[in-house]
Amino acid sequence: MKHALMFVMLLGLISCKDDELEKEPIVVTTVDLFTITGRGTVGSGIIESEGGYKVTEAGIVYGTSSSPTVDDVKEKADPFAPTEFPYTFSVTIRGSLPSGTIYYRAYAAAGDKIFYGQTKTKN
């Protein structure tokens, strides 16, 4: 009986992992940055689809490394309330961007999962 219960629990864990593997990813597109004089730089993204997830946050990440992540500088889209897809969001980066080449990309989060759009650059 004890072994049967352990088998059922293990089978449940495996099927949870299989469900996770079968989910489609969130599809995110990065839109070009543009500057509004006196206001800051605007970054946008498009969440093309949620895949098999529920998007809980989106925004733009940027920095001087070629693959910025949410651990770098991020600007969250606020308010964020997608009701249909594709969903376009924008953020304003206040102040000046660092000098040199800036790498940026849109992101969408679903819990602890982060999905990124393509990385773009701005000089």
Give a concise summary.
This is Lipoprotein. 17% of the residues lie in helices and 44% in strands.
Description:
The chain has 123 residues and is of the alpha+beta class. It has one domain: Immunoglobulin-like (Sandwich). 17% of the residues lie in helices and 44% in strands. The chain contains one helix and eight strands; from the N terminus they run αββββββββ. Strands 3, 4, 6, 7 and 8 form a five-stranded antiparallel sheet that branches. It has a three-stranded antiparallel sheet with strand order 1-2-5, with no helix packed on it. A hairpin with a 2-residue loop joins β6 and β7 (113-116). Mean pLDDT is 85; it is low at 3-11.
Q: How is this fold's topology laid out?
A:
Blueprint: H1 2-22, E1 27-36, E2 40-49, E3 57-63, E4 73-76, E5 87-93, E6 102-110, E7 113-116, E8 120-122
Antiparallel strand pairs: 1-2, 2-5, 3-4, 3-6, 6-7, 6-8
